[in-house]
Design goal:
The structure holds four protein chains of four kinds. Chain A is an alpha+beta fold. Chain A has helices at 45-57, 92-102, 109-129, 168-183, 251-258, 286-289, 303-306, 316-328, 348-355, 357-367, 428-450, 462-472, 480-494, 501-518, 532-556, 574-577, 594-597, and strands at residues 27-28, 31-41, 60-64, 80-81, 143-151, 156-162, 186-189, 191-201, 204-214, 220-230, 263-264, 269-276, 293-295, 340-343, 376-385, 389-390, 396-398, 404-410, 415-416, 579-585, 598-604. In chain A, strands 1, 2, 3, 7, 8, 9, 10, 17 and 18 form a nine-stranded mixed β-sheet that branches. In chain A, strands 12-15-14-13 form a four-stranded antiparallel β-sheet. In chain A, α1 runs parallel beside α11, α9 (348-355) packs across α10 and α13 runs antiparallel to α14. The termini of chain A are far apart. The termini of chain C are far apart. Chain C contains nine helices and seven strands; from the N terminus they run αββαβββββααααααα. By secondary structure, chain C is α+β, with helices and mostly antiparallel strands. Classes of the chains: A alpha+beta, B mainly alpha, C alpha+beta, D mainly alpha. Bound molecules: flavin-adenine dinucleotide, protoporphyrin IX containing FE, iron/sulfur cluster (SF4), FE3-S4 cluster and FE2/S2 (inorganic) cluster (FES). Residues 166-172, 188-189, 192, 231-232, 234, 236, 238 of chain C line the site of iron/sulfur cluster (SF4).
């Protein structure tokens, strides 16, 4: 271990903190040290798209807690939007408009323009990499309709979603992985990033390394890098009912949050109305498009009461809210009266088998319910985090409304550019991960080409070492499973589609108590190899942090907009809230009053072409 | 606990060496010979075990009588070659699956040796066969033998 | 406690009684590399609902009884390929196997997939599996640089549709008796992924992949036992894919269908 | 799986029988007496049953061999592999039903 700084410029003063000098691959005091120009955290769609750009141009490493092909991008079904105009007239400007309107005007319009414009190349890139899109009779990429995508600013639905059967996400994930294999991308599989090291350079915090925990061995690795890209996906697991994977615990967003960097628009979470009850597995909107009907316990078609004209085809947010209301007022079906029913029985076996084979299979497999003869239990399911790590259009992470953190990038669901505003349009997320994943990769390389390595302090790994050892030695009485369950249930009850100041206050209280109980947690697995017990505890820590920011930001936004529906403030309030929420961690998270450790700020929305209008279809 | 070797130590595709591809031809041979063997073996079994009084009918005279005809000679030579090579190659597959290292080599050599040995032996027997060996008693040899025409 | 009677009662009265939890015994093959010399079987009783999956049962053990139980999982609905394991002697995804579809009057036996090195409990080392995958060059090899998409007819796209569904769960490879013998065989999953490109009309690397699989450890080792086809949670006709590759090797080319495009000149 | 296990077992068994069979048949080249002596042992009841097993084994191996060949070369063979397997079993039973009674009668006749 050397006390010398590798940075030649800082030789003058000996009072600088101690820095580590090491070779790539060195092991010092049991900690492994690596050095790469670019380090990407996460190997979902966004991470691998970035790796495909960065891999060939710079010394790149990808750290991922899952084998790349296990990432949740693979679960996406519907499609990926791009105005190719392969089947009918379309252009990217219409796509921009739809995105802005879909996001209830909280979208940064410069970013939305890039999204829509670069969508076309993003699709061709994927096709050229080998993605097996469905084809038109002319052999071109086929396209289909999707909610909210229209021609000429809302005149009629347009066929804009490129797709590969109902497995678009799967194909994207596989294709990107295949190309990573082709390029020989350097993956560190089943490495959990748990911290980012910030080094003070000329009084400013600069990211110098990522600290990761290797699942197989329990060893700690420090990855020094010039550019670091976060692509760690969403955090749907703060909710009980979610379409998200067990592993979507928002680690990346949590790491950034703990460093005092801001998180943007965290109150906006998309709830998809038709998830399989209790499981959250998604049933496509297409079912209602085909004529399926939502019913309560007494068989009543309750949407008739709430939306007399469009009934079951009302927007996602409205339907989700009505469903929750039915259940809250005791009209839920089932033994616990905790779900409503999606009735497809009148559609007939043929429509179900041919047009909706997937949901038919899911319902049969997972609920043992055959949609041909019985209605399917459904409830809204937490689906997508619109908010996340704030970035600009170069995918650079921001430390406030406009200051860039040099060398730090974020892309995909963990980031907030913001192209989704307060409500994401279907098929725009697969697009987001490709467009901004690619950008992140390119800008990260560009930066790494000229930048110097930021020195890594000697104690770089100590935070993670402490976290891991403390938890491993923890012999408390609280079970992680029980704490997580309570968090998720309370979030479902109080911070789901239907929020009031009262409910949000209640769940804030829950989170505070859970945080206290979390200190007394019991870790039964004391081993080093594949200690998933320990990692679930760490993940729960991130979930608690993020749930609190979501709730706190939601409490502060006293209006209803897109995915954020406040019952006590049921309308959109552009005068006060036409702006992004920026939340910062400013104190000890254990303090009783959330306002003692979270502070909020606002960030203006970038408006280029489209002035806010009432959102109706 | 399962322990396995590293998969396929450095891979050299067939094109790199351009040798005869034994795996492919072996595979094809198993099928081609299989088809022929169905005819040959069932014919053989039918004639030997089913016609007449089954295995009781078999004795030197029966065999010699059959082999007096070139038709059956060719039949049996073909069956001998096809079946032994088919079986030998099949045994090779089985050994490759379950035996490793020295044991594998030993077993493979044993199989190869017995196949070659038996093919040579069987072919010699068939080609040099004399249905009426000198000095054999008439009741043991076929009726057409000179012993019996006296 | 083994409450077999409860299980029998509720199973007979399903689905009405499905809201009543019943007790199921899991017998899990445990192995902790830091402690055990050999794997051993351990029983757990869990309270389950008819609609629960084996994955839920494993979670209940991990979350409420024994936190040391280790297994992989992510999506929980059969699309990520994390949790292939041997359940009652058959390779399945734990998240796609419902308790009620098993015979709950008997204990459920759960162990890691076979043929790959056991790491801990239900976790195996997947590296040999992925090494075979990488060896068949699982990516599009094409020299042209089109401005837009490459043209491919609907029929050409259909030829390899089945094998694009693979989620690399290893259920097939680790159910193959030939793979069990020495782990040297490429295995069905690698062949499935080679098939996906060999029969893609846009690909130019078919010959290379056919050569790789025309090898000692290639397709000829498949003895058409069909275990792979039966294990595949995505319903891929694995053995058929292998047969297609064998046929292509014998033929010397993939024998793709001709482009049947109804192309109208786009010059105007 | 089981079709393959049986195919393998029967294949190996037949191979070993064939080794012995070629050797004993070769005795014809040496002396008719020697050959007949050996062939007579085939006519004991125990080996009579063994012969039945041999025919059963060859029968299964051959029928299943044809099934494998169909799977390999018939474009929809893989899809019907289970059906083909049951056909193999059915034909095999028919084959044995034809052969076994005669063989058993022969065995009994030999014993008396
Ligand atoms: C059921 C479902 C259906 C959907 N359908 C559509 C659709 O049709 N169209 C559409 O556009 N969008 C859809 N979406 C949304 C879209 O799929 C996701 O938002 C998008 O795939 C997210 O990609 P990502 O790369 O950001 O994250 P992910 O694919 O989730 O990847 C996250 C990666 O980060 C890694 N990671 C996480 N934490 C750590 C850590 N601590 N250390 C190291 N690595 C870590 C993981 O290993 C993983 O590789 C759907 C989402 C769901 C859940
Ligand atoms: C009667 C006609 C026969 C047919 C149709 C036949 C067919 C086949 C076929 C197609 C295979 C290849 C199996 C595969 O690749 O999975 C095979 C394998 C084999 N055969 Fe035959 N065969 C016949 C007779 C014989 C005979 C007479 C013997 C013994 C000498 C024999 C011994 C074997 C062996 C040992 C194998 C290898 C088994 C394995 O790899 O699992 N077969 N047979
Ligand atoms: S072919 Fe099927 S069983 Fe094999 S890895 Fe792919 S999905 Fe899994
Ligand atoms: S299980 Fe194995 S033997 Fe062939 S048919 Fe499947 S690869
Ligand atoms: S957890 Fe993803 S396939 Fe089972």
């Amino acid at each position: 271990m050397s006390t010398e700084s590798p940075s030649k410029k800082s030789t003058a003063k000996a009072v600088e903190p101690e820095y580590l000098e090491f070779e790539d691959g060195a092991v010092i005091d049991g900690v492994h040290y690596h050095r790469h120009d670019v380090v990407i955290v996460g190997a979902g769609g966004a991470g691998m798209r970035a790796a495909i750009e960065a891999g060939p141009k710079a010394n790149t490493a990808v750290i991922t807690k899952l084998y790349p092909t296990r990432s949740h991008t693979g679960a996406a079904q519907g499609g990926m939007a791009a105005a190719l105009a392969n089947v009918e007239e379309d252009n990217w400007e219409w796509h921009t408009f739809d995105t802005v309107k879909g996001g209830d005007y909280l979208v940064d319009q410069d970013a939305a323009e890039i999204l829509a414009k670069e969508a076309i190349d993003a699709i061709y890139d994927l096709e050229n990499m080998g993605l097996p899109f469905n084809r038109t009779p002319e052999g071109k990429i086929d396209q289909r309709r999707f909610g909210g995508h229209t021609r000429d600013h809302g005149k009629a639905p347009v066929r804009r979603a490129c797709y590969a059967a109902d497995r678009t996400g799967h194909m994207i994930l596989q294709t990107l992985f295949q190309n990573c294999v082709k390029l020989g991308v350097n993956f560190f599989n089943e490495y959990y990033a748990l911290d980012i090291v910030m080094t003070k350079v000329k009084g400013k915090d600069r990211p110098s390394a990522v600290v990761a925990y290797e699942l197989a061995t329990g060893e700690i690795h420090v990855f020094q890098a010039k550019s670091i890209i976060f692509a760690t996906g969403g955090f749907g697991k703060i909710y009980k009912t979610t379409s998200n994977a067990h592993t979507l615990t928002g680690d990346g967003v949590g790491i950034i949050w703990r460093k005092g960097l801001p998180l943007e628009d965290m109150e906006f979470f998309q709830f998809h109305p038709t998830g399989l009850a209790g499981l959250g597995i998604l049933l496509t909107e297409g079912a209602r498009g085909e004529g399926a009907i939502l019913r309560n316990a007494s068989g009543e078609r309750f949407m008739e009461r709430y939306a007399p004209t469009i009934k079951d085809l009302a927007p996602r947010d409205i339907i989700s809210r009505c469903m929750v209301q039915e259940v809250a007022e005791g009209r839920g079906a089932g033994p616990l009266k905790d779900y409503v029913l999606l009735d497809c029985t009148h559609l007939g076996a043929e429509v179900l088998e041919t047009k909706l084979p997937d949901i038919t299979e899911f319902a049969r497999t997972y609920l043992g319910v055959d949609p041909v003869v019985e209605p399917v239990p459904v409830m809204p399911t937490a689906h997508y985090a619109m908010g996340g790590i704030p970035t600009n259009i170069k995918a650079e992470v921001l430390s406030d409304n406009d200051t860039v953190v040099p060398g730090l990038y974020a892309a995909g669901e963990c980031a907030c550019v913001s192209v989704h505003g307060s409500n994401r349009l279907g098929t725009n997320s697969l697009l987001d991960i490709n467009v901004f994943g690619k950008r992140a990769g390119n800008y990260a390389v560009e930066y790494a080409k000229t930048a110097e390595f930021v020195p890594v302090p000697v104690n770089a790994a100590s935070f993670v070492q402490g976290l891991v050892e403390e938890l491993r030695d923890s012999n408390g009485t609280e079970r992680i499973g029980a704490l997580r369950k309570e968090l998720q249930e309370q979030m479902d009850l109080n911070a789901q589609v239907f929020r009031t100041d009262e409910s949000l206050a209640k769940v804030t209280e829950t989170i505070h108590t859970l945080r206290g109980r979390y200190k007394n947690v019991s870790i039964q697995d004391k081993g080093r190899r594949f200690n998933t017990d320990l990692l679930e505890a760490i993940e729960l820590g991130f979930l608690l942090d993020l749930a609190e920011v979501v709730v706190y930001s939601a409490r502060n936004r006293q209006e209803s907009r897109g995915g954020h529906q406040r019952d006590d403030y049921p309308t959109r309030d552009d005068a006060h809230y036409m702006k992004h929420t920026m939340a910062y961690l400013t104190g000890d998270p254990h303090s009783a009053d959330a306002s003692d450790h979270i502070s909020l700020d606002w960030k203006p929305v970038v408006i280029t072409n489209y002035q806010p209008m009432e959102r109706k279809y | 606990m399962t322990t396995i070797d590293a998969p396929r130590s450095p891979h050299t595709p067939a094109t790199a060496t351009r040798k005869v591809n034994w795996e492919k031809w072996g595979w094809i041979y198993m099928r081609a010979s299989g088809i022929l063997l169905v005819v040959l073996i069932f014919g053989h079994l039918f004639v030997n075990l089913f016609l007449g009084t089954g295995v009781r009918a078999i004795d030197f005279a029966f065999v010699a009588g059959k082999w007096a005809s070139p038709f059956w000679k060719v039949w049996d030579v073909a069956m001998l070659w096809l079946a032994l090579i088919h079986g030998g190659n099949g045994m090779r597959t089985v050994i490759n699956d379950y035996a490793h290292g020295r044991g594998r080599t030993v077993l493979l050599v044993l199989v190869a040796a017995s196949v070659i040995g038996l093919i040579v032996l069987g072919t010699l027997v068939l080609t040099t066969f004399d249905p009426c060996p000198a000095g054999a008693p008439g009741n043991l040899v076929p009726s057409f033998c000179p012993v019996n025409s006296k | 406690m083994s409450d077999v009677a409860v299980a029998r009662d509720s199973s007979s009265a399903m689905p009405e009684a499905s809201i009543e939890p019943f007790t199921v015994t899991l017998i899990i093959r445990r192995f902790d590399p830091e402690v055990d010399a050999e794997p051993h079987w351990q029983d757990f009783d869990v309270k389950m609902y008819a609609t629960d999956r084996v994955l839920d049962a494993l979670h209940q053990v991990k979350w409420e009884q024994d936190g040391t139980l280790s297994f992989r999982r992510s999506c929980a609905h059969g699309v990520c390929g994390s949790d292939a394991m041997r359940i009652n002697g058959r390779n399945r995804l734990a998240c796609k196997t419902l308790i009620k579809d098993l015979d709950i009057t008997k204990p459920i036996y759960i162990e890691a997939i076979k043929g790959l090195p056991l790491e801990k409990d239900l976790i195996v080392d997947m590296e040999p599996f992925f090494e075979s995958y990488r060896a068949i060059q699982p990516f599009l090899i094409a020299s042209d640089k089109p401005e837009k998409e490459r043209i491919q007819s609907v029929a050409q796209r259909a030829v390899f549709d089945d094998t694009t569904k693979c989620i690399l769960c290893a259920a097939c490879t680790s159910s193959c008796p030939v793979f069990w013998t020495d782990g040297q065989y490429f295995g069905p999953a690698a062949i499935v992924n080679a098939h996906r490109f060999i029969f893609d009309s846009r690909d130019e690397g078919s010959q290379v992949r056919l050569d790789i699989l025309n090898d000692k450890e290639g397709v000829w080792r498949c003895r058409t036992t069909f275990n792979c086809t039966e294990a595949c949670p995505r319903g891929i006709e694995v053995t058929k894919a292998i047969s297609d590759v064998k046929a292509a090797i014998l033929r010397g080319n993939p024998g793709l269908p001709p482009s049947d495009l109804t192309l109208t000149p786009v010059s105007a | 799986m089981w079709s393959w296990v049986l195919h393998r077992i029967t294949g190996v068994a037949i191979f070993f029988f064939l080794l012995v069979h070629v050797l004993d048949t070769s005795l014809v080249r040496i002396t008719p007496e020697g050959y007949n002596a050996v062939i007579n042992t085939y006519k004991t009841p125990i080996l009579g049953l063994g012969e039945l097993a041999l025919v059963a084994a060859i029968g299964f191996h051959a029928l299943n061999g044809i099934r494998i060949i169909l799977i390999d070369f018939w474009s929809v063979g893989t899809r019907h592999q289970k059906l083909l397997f049951w056909i193999v079993i059915a034909l095999w039973i028919v084959l044995l039903a034809g052969f076994a009674p005669r063989q058993i009668i022969n065995i009994i006749a030999e014993m008396s």
